[in-house]
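Q: I have two molecules that I believe assemble together. Could you output structure tokens for the complex as a whole instead of separate predictions?
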Amino acid sequence: MGAIQKINEPVSDELVLVRAAKRGDIGAFEQLVHRYDRNVFRIAQHITQNREDAEDVVQDAFLKAYENLQSFQEQSKFYTWLVRIAVNEALMRLRRRRPERMVSLDEEVKTDEDSMPREVADWSPNPEQLYSQSELRDILTKTIQGLPSSFRTVFVLRDVEGLSTEETAEALELSIPAVKSRLLRARLQLRERLNKYFKKRRTGDSKK
Amino acid sequence: MNCSDFLKELTDYLDEALDARTRAELEEHLQWCHNCFVICNTTKKTIEIYRDSQLYELPDDLRTRLRSAIVNKCQTKKTSSEKA
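A: Yes, here they are, computed for all two components at once.
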């Protein structure tokens, strides 16, 4: 039996698909794949930093979700549940690829960038005006790849994928204060690292 | 409120998750502290730029290939569990 629906609370179309998939409707499950495959791919590539691994994560995460659909309790969103599976698959691959480095979302990462920001300069003109789209994409990719995986994952779920703090905590099995603390540090570290590309230049400075 | 207090609240401030009183204190600090004003603006910009960046888009051909692989595996799984 599914979770008790609150009176007058409409069943989301996501839940309609999930229930149909639970009854064996593969077409309904395919619609769920179609809805979330791009998000899962993006999350997986951010975590693993490897295209092939990200492709495998997409396949394995959806397959695992399908196999375990009966155990999905409908108390959270299907997407949050799916993200949790995908993050675990991605971390497993990352650990396999980098066995020399312990990869855990619980790790306490101390860096020298956690204190007060060192460089304070406004960004002007806008980064979008300063660099071409592909240059900007390279800068953003390189910068986020330099973050510890525990910060990167929280930032991606919260700020790129738009999960709430509570959903991020649930998907990563972290406490809300832990999510907030990692998010703050991730945001500040990214800001600090992007600063060298985007800070306002004095007259006469070259572009790079 | 000093700069370090401001920094601690920055994430909740940007996420509009603060109570009215703390928010007012932060905004008062922003009025006279240029450094925190810049940090706040550029952090906000950092989030926006990543949100809009479209990094790691899934190309259509790969998307189709992955989806059909997933559906095939699910179908196999379903068939084998029906037989069991």
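A: One point stands out. The radius of gyration of chain B is 24 Å.
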